[in-house]
Amino acid sequence: MELRTSPADTPAPRTSAPLLDVEHARVGYELDGRLQVAVEDVSFAIHPGEHVMLLGPSGCGKSTLLKTIAGFIEPAGGSIRLNGRTDLSPGPDRAVVFQEFDQLFPWFPVERNLTYPLRVNGRSKADAARIAAEYLDLMGLSHAADRYPHQLSGGMKQRVAIARAMALEPVLLLMDEPFGALDAQTRSRLQRELHEVARSAEATILFVTHSIQEAVYIGHRVVVLGTPPSTVVEILDVAHLSDPAAPEFTDAMRHLRSLLSADDSTAESATFE
Ligand SMILES: Nc1ncnc2c1ncn2[C@@H]1O[C@H](COP(=O)(O)OP(=O)(O)OP(=O)(O)O)[C@@H](O)[C@H]1O
């Protein structure tokens, strides 16, 4: 099988202009007055409607990159442009879904968890209620609209967090291992749901994962990062792969596993599903 790859800093050509353009990004943390570099040199682009997966060993800087794109961290070098703009202070144009189950407002029922950020961002009461109902329905949560977060399973909480983020209709949805804390069965159900919902809503997504299977299933492209301080090892086109039973799907997984294990000598974790 021929795998479609693109050189690390020249993403496959697309007809539209990139929504997000990351060029030679360098990111680190100040410790004792010195910059500890987590991400050395990373370049990739995301076009409207694409789902780009960040895959790499533990500690290689996936979350750091995602937080930089969210505007929580200033890059130390290179450039990150969103719709041509380099001012990336945090805003509702980039909604973030995290791994933790406690990201919902515990004192609000599910419906209010969705309407509250919509109201804060200027939507009228009627609009917020209509949009919340639409996204709760999309994520199969209409029956749980009046429940409080503590009355939900872990999988339901993550579905609410995804519905809330999508309801903001961000230009870019940032997901940091949103299914990482779920049991295997719930995780594959949510992967299927996200696969369907994100494609039908034409959402543009940057998704951090440890799971090779998840990367190939949900992604259009997989950006593989190496050991820290990270650079891009390869960008793999997997847009045509959505059937986990297909031999091409297994071939892509095998290829990614070999890339990751070849680059895994100093990684904190060597396990990739
Ligand atoms: N707030 C912080 N202050 C200082 N160093 C940090 C901070 N957050 C992360 N780091 C360091 O930056 C590096 C990259 O961490 P990051 O969490 O981005 O990696 P990751 O690839 O997302 O890891 P994992 O897959 O285990 O979640 C690590 O060495 C980590 O210890």
Q: How would you summarize what this structure contains?
A:
The protein has 273 residues and is of the alpha/beta class. It has seven helices and ten strands. It has helices at 62-70, 110-120, 125-138, 154-167, 184-200, 212-218, 247-262; strands at 5-6, 20-31, 34-46, 51-55, 77-82, 94-97, 172-176, 205-209, 221-225, 230-237.
Write up this protein:
With 273 residues, the protein is an alpha/beta fold. It folds into two domains: 1-93 and 172-214 and 227-273, P-loop containing nucleotide triphosphate hydrolases (Rossmann fold), CATH 3.40.50.300; 104-169, no CATH class. It is built from seven helices and ten strands. Strands 1, 2, 3, 4, 5, 6, 7, 8, 9 and 10 form a ten-stranded mixed beta sheet that branches. The radius of gyration is 18 Å and the shape is globular. Mean pLDDT is 89; it is low at 5-13 and 265-271. Adenosine-5'-triphosphate (ATP) binds next to α1.
Instruction: Compute the CA-based radius of gyration.
Output: 18 Å
The unreliable regions are 5-13, 265-271
Structural class determined from secondary elements: alpha/beta
How far the N terminus sits from the C terminus, by CA atoms, comes to: 21 Å
For the residues shown, what is the average pLDDT? Answer: 89
- The CATH class of the largest domain, by name, is Alpha Beta
CATH-defined architecture of the largest domain = 3-Layer(aba) Sandwich
Shape: globular
Percent of residues in helices: 25-40%
- Strand percentage lies at 15-25%
The fold-level CATH name of the largest domain is Rossmann fold
Bound ligands: adenosine-5'-triphosphate
